[in-house]
Amino acid sequence: MSLKLIELSKIVEKAKIIAHIWSEWREHIEPYYDPVLLRFDFAPLIATICDEEVRAEVAWRFPSWLYNRLGNLDLETLLKIKDYRSVLEEYLSGIWPSNNKDGKRKQMYIERVSKNIANALKFFNDKSMTPVTMFEDREYKVAEVYFMLRAVPGIGPKKAFMITRDFAYRIIGYTKYHPWFDQVKTKRPKFNVTDLHFLDPPVDSQAVKVFNRLFGRKYPRNGYDWKSEITPETVQDIHMFARLAFPEMPAKIDDLFWNVGREYCDNKNPNCVKCPLREVCDVAKRS
Question: Is a pLDDT exceeding 80 seen at residue 25?
Answer without folding.
Answer: no
